Amino acid sequence: MIKPEEITWVKPPTFGLMDQIYLPAIISGLGTTLGHFAKTVFGGPQAKVTQYFPEERPELPANYRGVHRLNRDEEGRVKCVACYMCSTACPAHCIDIVAAPSPWPDREKYPEVFVIDELRCIYCGMCEQACPVDAIELTSLFDLTGLSREEMIFNKEKLLSVFDQTVAMGKDPVRTKAGRLSVASEPAGDGLTDSSSVQS
Amino acid sequence: MATVYINDKAVDIGDKRLNLVQVAELAGVTIPHYCYHPALSVVASCRMCLVELGEKTPDGSVQMQPRVVPACQTPAKDGAVVQTATSKSKTAQGQTLEALLLNHPLDCPVCDKAGECKLQDYSYQFGFAESRMVDEKNTPPNKPDLGPNINLFTDRCIMCSRCVRFTREISGTSELHIVNRGTHSEIDVFPGDPLNNKLATNVVDLCPVGALASKDFLYSHRVWNLKTVDSVCPGCSTGCSIHIDANKDVVYRLRPRENPLAQGYFMCDDGRLGYHYANSKNRLSAPKIRSGQEWKETGWKEIVSGIDNDLRAVAAVNPKGVLGVLSPFLTVEEGFLLAQYLKSLSKDARLALGPIPVTGEDDNYPKTRNGQPAKVQFTIRQEKCPNRKGIEAILQHFEGKIVHLRDSLQGEKAEAVFLTGGYPPSTQSWLEPNLAKGISKTPLIINQDLFENAVAGQSKYLLPAAAFAEKEGTFVNHAGLAQGIKRICSGPRKGRTDGQVYLDLLGRKGLLHAFSLHKEIASAVPCFAPLLTMGPQGVNLEKGS
Amino acid sequence: MVVEFSLIVTLATIIVLMACLNGLVAYLTLFERKISAYVQDRVGPNRAFFGIVQPIADGIKFLLKEDVIPAHVDKFFYLLAPAIALGTAFLAIAVVPFGSTLPPPALVDHRPGSTTFGKMVFPSVTLELEEVLQADRKFSQDSKTPSYEEKLKKYNATFQCVVSPGVDIGFVFVFAVGSLAVYGIILGGWSSNNKYSLLGSLRSSAQLISYEIPMGLSVLGVAVAAGSLNMERIIHHQVENGWNFIFQPLAMILFATAIFAECNRLPFDLPEAEQELVGGYHTEYSAMKFALFFLGEYTHMITTSFLIVTLFFGGWHLPFLTSPDQTGLFAILIKVGITCGKMLAFIFFYMMIRWTILRFRFDQLMNLAWKVMLPLSLLSFLALAGLTHFRPLGNLTPWVMPPISLGLLLGAGLLGLILPKSPTRSHVPNLGHGSGGIGPVCQTNQARLEKVEF
User: Fold this and answer.
1) Is A11 in contact with C454 (Cβ distance < 8 A)?
2) Nearest to B222 among A84, A189, A196 (CB)
3) Does domain B288-357+385-540 have CATH number 3.40.50.740?
4) CB-based contacts of B141, cutoff 8 Å, min separation 6
5) A94 and A44 fall within a common domain
6) Which of A136, C96, C286, C373 could form a disulfide with C306 if both were Cys (CB 3.0 to 4.6 A apart)?
7) Taking the alpha carbons of B301, B302, B307, B310 in that order, is the dihedral positive or negative?
8) Is B129's Cβ below 8 Å from some Cβ in A?
């Protein structure tokens, strides 16, 4: 909520004679456009902002939101616990999960099926934020193409392979060390640091 | 006359015997509680309902007690003053919650209760944001073999003992116990005595946290994705009020709905787990016509006009040869429409009541372990159909008497049979061999059922019926209580609800809206007059209004 | 039998002109994209031989793409619309000179005692024509000047860079046929059975009809100065007396503005405002039918550019370089080059303006046409008509017009400052240009805004 004293009222610019006639404004505007035109035509390559895409790869910021991946834990298993938080948070309804009791003794639930429709996704990153175990992350892979719609529906294996690929490239390191569902769901002794950090 | 003051609001409770939680409910104030349940005895073990209590003295001054009291265990008396929102009460509630959460694993992401969990709700409303627990939490092992249908996540339990009291007081089977002491208390069963009574899964609903989980629903869906409608269990003639939870045309679970007029608070496992046939892939999915040995799928337009023409042809020659079999799985509205249609062909068209599936005997609860009789609180009935009474009333009106299919087959020879089904596969052989034999002799069989039945091969028309989650209407239970069922799934894509087919046969325009037929039914069949006043809890047709 | 008509020459001219036009349109798209890119510091199309083959690729694509005809359209008019749009655009260019021209000789009445003595006549009766011709022959013998018939012979023998030379109604024909283009747009939008298309075409009809008035009025002055509507004569007049834009700058500005609107170019591209109307009237068109609309629009641009060059910038004339007497092949080529160069310069101006000025709102557009351009063009024409009639400064009279134009312009600006704003804009809080306050201003905000004095 903006407080009234924080509002600065700005008067709209009023028209002077030169603005009313239009022509001087148009001429000064033409000066700008012609200036850019001349700069681009005669200014050499550094004057142009165009990137020659397939040959030149863009430098993407670290928080770029590209293709999803499903992270693996230390043992190489899928980190996801099938809590449906991502699919619940997803505004495009592009995540489909089928949960099942996990085959591993230290975990209760895991995703039997985890499908993301990359065409339906709007790459907002809400799934990443919603994930309580940092299992889903958006990578910096951006040039995603496919020849059919089916090809663009990524299943669990494909999403895990994106993890393998991006981690091997070194471009997208696993961003957080979190991954514990809670202190109690971890082996004994590990929880102490976590709860004490909450206290401090 | 007794007046109780809840947060300075006066509530007149008359001479009812209520506790403070109930009185606060009347005042519109929620006192948080875990262990208290209106159907169970009060133990005040969770301490969540601590409130400040005082008394209004005759001179008008208020004398507050120095300590907080558990509201569930404190009977309301005249002049009692309850403060639920004072800092004392709030601190007490927050601290109780903190204590309950000491050993709770907080694994909400993988917990099936998340979304309808009282621990979550109250933590959000009354709890502290941070835990001060520095010690290691207890992580007792899970007990997946607590019962055939029930899983125990031991570490999530907050020891409210609702489940233990349920097995002792409602089912009477007393399988569950609390073992160990203090923070190491656990719910458990004796070896060789699993939690397998027919009401067992009610403990999952009773559990305010995610400790007890239904194996049927385990990990199958998150509750916030489910859509819920009020309905009636079609499993037996008790007609338990239920919630159907479904999503994307798949029924995921049934839950009992509190209804003092019907069954109370609970439902049996047979009914609760007996919904799977509605999701079955083997159901009839599209209307078919048979010519010779060839089956042909056609549109409903041809089907309806075909049935109408065929039946009219038979009725013109031999009116008594037209036999309509009204299944006790039809709703009152469907039965009414079908009877109306068949009678519109000819006044002499015959109607009969479909077979009533019966299994064993009425199963009364609580059971007693020592053989002493107890007051019956819950009954699973032997009659495994939801609407015998309703269909009988329809037959009584149109036919003047209740004729069973068996008898009408022995009577005059039928030329055309309109056979309605809707029986779940648990009553697989609902059409007994001799009945099937009797029907299959008929040249024209119009067969409407969920699954292929005994005379499917001899039928001319094979129509898919709608399951209970796919139609709306009214069921009348064993005691004459009429309750509404509502639609939540759309059923087979090429299917059409039974009532809609009858409406089309009658040549009436539009889509079926069962509840707006009540006026018509009530004026035609006087005993259904109370339907007009039917509320969410239903209305008893026999006791009258 | 005033101007001779040679079928072969005309057909050849048409074929060459059409071919050049189509090629030019194709490359204008590249031109446009390149200029857009440069203005935005980009490179523009740079694949396929630095973009040179790009228009050809585009053309092939237009031809080969699936030709979708939506089920809900009115098929006959839907198919007719692009044809009308392109047909009228091509028709309009028929009388526009694109290179070397001579003025068709004037038949002057030398009959003694005639009411029109010494003036140009257009006899409609053969008998009268004979009389006039006779008088003309006599006069030429007397004055030792070439007679009308000799001049006509010479004129017919010279190649004129116009499809149909010597059309006396001249630019009125261009306006008449050019304004038929609105039928293409309206039919396209209406038959598409799509609300965006319909909105686009309705806007377009209102816009085109409104802007035709100031456009016509602004060039009336040119016709009065030249004494003819015939465009070859207008060029000749400029060759002799100097280019019109020097003497009638205000008319030139008004005319240029009006043709921007007539061509649906920014800042007046409301019929196809992508941000508001998807694609406007051609939303439902695809493949070659869309290309036909496209072709029509660019042809319109070329026509109007030729027109403004002819009317205000001397056509093929460049001082000290060209003169009417040069009629050799090389001279013709030079003149065609000069005309096309001027035309391309104006198209470049078109494209630069596109990236300079924002699109007008519809009410602004209408205000500009009816409240500004129409009175200005009327006043300008009145001034010119008065000057031409009274000639207060004798031969220096044309030089009076530029200061009058400037005065009118400044006067209009001053009036704009003094006059109150239109009621629709004054009671709604105005938050600056463009955001005219029509958007949802919530009640409290509006109340707050009203307290602030603008």
Assistant:
1) yes
2) A84
3) yes
4) B154
5) no
6) C96
7) positive
8) no
Domain ranges of chain B: 3-100, 133-279, 288-357+385-540
Q: How close is the nearest chain A Cα to the Cα of B99, in Å?
A: 16
Substitution target from B102, B107, B209 for chain A, most A beta carbons within 10 A: B107
Query: Are A195 and B224 a contacting pair at CB < 8 A?
Result: no
- pLDDT of C195: 84
Q: Which residues, listed in sequence order, are joined to residue B350 by a DSSP beta bridge?
A: B323
Q: What is the ipTM of this complex?
A: 0.79
Total-model pTM = 0.70
Q: Is the pLDDT score of A191 beyond 50? A: no
Number of domains, chain A: 2
Q: What does residue B288 show for φ and ψ, rounded to 5 degrees? A: -135, 150
Lowest mean pLDDT across B407-416, C190-199, C366-375, C428-437:
C428-437
Q: C38, A41: Cβ pair inside 8 Å?
A: yes
pLDDT at C197: 85
Residue B102 at interface with chain A, using a CB cutoff of 8 Å = no
Q: Which segment of A22-31, B201-210, B486-495, C439-448 scores lowest on mean pLDDT?
A: C439-448
CB contacts of A40 in chain C (<8 Å) are 37-39, 41-42
Q: Diameter of chain B by CA atoms?
A: 93
**Contact yes or no for A21 and C433 at CB 8 A:** no
User: What's the pLDDT band for A112 if we cut at 50, 70, 90?
Assistant: very high
Which residues 82-121 on chain A approach chain B with CB closer than 8 angstroms? 82-85, 88, 99-101, 108-109
pLDDT (0 to 100) of residue B371:
67
Between chain A and chain C, the number of residue pairs with CB atoms below 8 A apart is: 67
Question: Are A29 and A85 within one domain?
Answer: no
Cβ-Cβ contacts under 8 Å, A47 against chain C: 41
Over residues C103-122, the mean pLDDT reads: 76
Question: CA of A54, closest CA in chain C: separation in Å?
Answer: 12
Tracing tokens 């696993």 back to the chain, one arrives at: A174
Distance of alpha carbon B59 from alpha carbon B350, whole angstroms:
77
Residues A72 and A148 in one domain: yes
Strand intervals (E) in B61-122: 62-70, 80-83
Q: Chain A closest CA to C152's CA: distance in Å?
A: 44
Judge whether A132 lies within some domain: yes
Most C-contacting residue of A37, A51, A53 (CB-CB within 10 A), to test interface? A37
| Whether residue A109 is found in the same domain as residue A81 | yes
Question: What b/e readout covers B341-377, taking b as 16+ CB neighbours within 10 angstroms?
Answer: bbbebbeebbbbbbbbbeeeeebbbbbeeeeeeeeeb
B133-279 belongs to which CATH class?
alpha beta
Q: What is the mean pLDDT of residues C31-43?
A: 89
pLDDT at B27 > cutoff 60: yes
Look at B155-164, B451-460, C261-270 and tell me which has the smallest mean pLDDT: C261-270
- The parent domain of residue A105 ranges over 68-182
Higher pLDDT: B308 or C50? It is B308
Closest Cβ–Cβ partner in A85, A108, A196 for B134? A196
| Chain A contact set for C450 (CB, 8 A) | none
pLDDT in tens, A9-21: 888 777 778 777 8
- Inter-residue contact C221 to C257 (CB < 8 Å): no
Q: Is B358 helix (H, G, I), strand (E, B) or coil?
A: strand
Q: What angle do CA B489, A96, B204 make, to 5 degrees?
A: 60
- Looking at 3.65.10.10, 3.40.50.300, 3.10.20.740, 3.40.50.1100, the CATH number of the domain B3-100 comes to 3.10.20.740
